[in-house]
Structure to design on (230 residues):
């Protein structure tokens, strides 16, 4: 299908339609060109995807990840590997010589690639962002209880745990006020199902730390002035 796109005179509308139809399995560079996303970021994610070697696949298999799942993630351009340099500021940079091998996951906002998260399976409790624009992995959708209507959304402590669970649920990458407000915006019909007691306690502490909204009142003197004018 991809070959027919480039045959003869370039048809942008056909190209756009193909990318839209293959939203899940087209290379990031193609989608970036069609939808005017960050092309440099997309090229890096494709490079990471093509960097998945057999040794990396077998290593993930030995850690308990199903090989079929690994291959499916690769077919969706959703799992990559490259040598990187981890910075003390929480960001990572690709590096050709030296550095450390890391797994790379795309961070999306809707269908759009907005960031990439990198981590070492040997230190899954530490992860690093490429740009700093990504806040959460996952779609935030779960299984709703047919009686109560409450939707259970799995939430994982690390990107590695989220990946090993097949990408179901969410993983908060940056615990800042915006992320907490995003969780609160889910409303009362959502129940976050943490993968550990420690994560549950952490979430509760983070929510309590969100500044309380100010109360809204009415100036008494202003009301009296208006009533007197009448």
């Amino acid at each position: 299908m991809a070959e027919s796109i480039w045959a003869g005179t370039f048809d942008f509308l056909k190209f756009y339609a193909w990318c839209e139809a293959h939203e899940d399995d087209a290379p990031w560079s193609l989608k970036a060109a069609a939808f005017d996303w960050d092309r440099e970021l997309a090229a890096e994610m494709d490079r990471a995807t093509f960097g998945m070697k057999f040794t990396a696949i077998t290593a993930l298999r030995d850690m308990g990840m199903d090989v079929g799942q690994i291959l499916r993630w690769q077919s969706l351009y959703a799992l990559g590997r490259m040598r990187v340099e981890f910075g003390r500021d929480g960001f990572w940079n690709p590096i050709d010589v030296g550095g450390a091998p890391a797994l790379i996951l795309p961070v999306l906002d809707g269908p759009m690639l907005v960031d990439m998260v990198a981590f070492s399976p040997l230190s899954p409790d530490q992860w690093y962002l490429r740009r700093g624009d990504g806040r959460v992995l996952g779609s935030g959708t779960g299984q709703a209880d047919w009686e109560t209507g409450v939707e259970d959304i799995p939430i994982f402590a690390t990107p590695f745990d989220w990946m090993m669970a097949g990408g179901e649920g969410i993983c908060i990458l940056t615990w800042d006020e915006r992320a907490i407000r995003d969780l609160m915006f889910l409303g009362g019909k959502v129940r976050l199902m943490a993968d550990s007691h420690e994560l549950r306690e952490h979430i509760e502490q983070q929510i309590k730390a969100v500044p309380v909204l100010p109360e809204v009142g009415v100036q008494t003197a202003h009301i009296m002035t208006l009533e007197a004018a009448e």
The first strand starts at residue 80 and ends at 86. The two ends are 75 Å apart (CA to CA).
